[in-house]
Amino acid sequence: MDSFVELYRASNALEAHALKGALEQQGVMVRLLGEALAGGTGELPVDSQEVGLLVQRRQLDKANAVLEQYHQSQAPWQCPSCGEQNDGHFETCWRCGGVPQR
């Protein structure tokens, strides 16, 4: 049986599940660690609410490639139509509806 290693610590369960879905779409098996602590919001330190994503050691290279794509998609971008700066999670410019050139 292949051992699992930590790939990433998501800031919350929502981010963890988004990444888990992206990894699983690429055939990477994922386990989440610390997901149940979200119920302690407000009572526990903020860093204890992070959710670890664990992947099989043999799939680490593939998982890192998916993680890199995720980080690139979260990067801010400048609209080629109007020049407005947009957060990475926007698929279109909030100001004019333009699309990024990625």
TrEMBL record:
InterPro entries: DUF2007, Znf_RanBP2, Znf_RanBP2_sf. This is DUF2007 domain-containing protein. It comes from the Bacteria. Pfam families: DUF2007. The keyword Metal-binding applies. SUPFAM superfamilies: Ran binding protein zinc finger-like (SSF90209). PROSITE patterns: ZF_RANBP2_1. GO terms for molecular function: zinc ion binding. Residues 77-96 form the RanBP2-type domain.
